[in-house]
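Protocol step 4 of 5: obtain the predicted structure for the target chain.
Materials: sequence only (see below). No template structures provided, no constraints applied. The aim of this step is simply to have a reference model before the mutagenesis design in step 5. Sequence pasted as it appears in the construct record:
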Amino acid sequence: MTDNVSFPDAVQWAVPFFIAAILAEFLWIAVKGRGGRYETRDAVTSLIMGAGNIASGFLLGFIAYAFFMWLWQITPLNLGTSIPVIILCFVLDDFRYYWVHRFGHRIRWVWASHVNHHSSQHYNLTTALRQTWTYTFTFMMVVRAPLILLGFHPAMVLFVGGLNLIYQFWIHTEAIGKMPRWFEAVMNTPSHHRAHHGRNARYLDCNYAGVFIIWDKLFGTFVPEQDEDRVDYGLVHNIGTFNPLRVAFHEWVAIWRDATQPGLTWRERLAYCFAPPGYSHDGSRDNSVQIKAKHLVRHPEDRGTPGFEQFGTVPPNTRAERIRKL
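Step 4 output (structure tokens):
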């Protein structure tokens, strides 16, 4: 099967746009006094994380590419490189991204790589560049295997993945409010992604979309940003550091410490690696579902509202009591 297919490195081409957009956002915030906030050490950490991501791609990218080319050699299918095929590949790769991103929040091994992206307590365009150095070790490259086996060339798959990341850059901002309703209904937007970055109980494990928010709506993970519940950015337990090495590796170290505790069963050791973040063998920590449940004990009026639908609706007597208090 022919391998003489090439596509440009879309992310590399977009770097000047990234720089110009960051400067424009910074000036907008400085002039208007609203639309977000920049903190020098935080922004520098994000930029270093972005540079480290590029470096890790140069050093380790051959592993994924070799795997993809092996798949390409064994598949009998070849869909070619026409415009409709590229568009189809883009949509299917975004579906792939939704699941990888969802795994990244529900499987601790994958979360260890993704957590650095959520570690900033600010939300601006530099946050988009706060990317992982350890993605190769999550083995999430296997989720792209079906695309290649279906006949999409690896170079095309990587190209549309780059376009996906470029799209996601601009949604990391507070300078843009809500987009037109039709756009918010279909596409991922700054509003939707702000909710994704929230550490509030309401916003935990929501809005995994890359480009099309329809995946979250189809699979029940969509939570709209609420005006009355302002997004609080960062981690449930913030790490409180601007050290890029700690940002990049702190969760891997934590997994090692948890899984090597004395007296654990093998099942408990594996759970510390692959159960959802917040797992503990002795119940000393809370996962996202438990955090939401405890929030509702304190705020029963939130039951049944966006982010808490799985817990049912608020009891009528509680709602009436809240109305009387208002």
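Step 4 remarks: Confidence is low (pLDDT under 50) at residues 322-326. Residues 286-326 form one domain.
Proceed to step 5.
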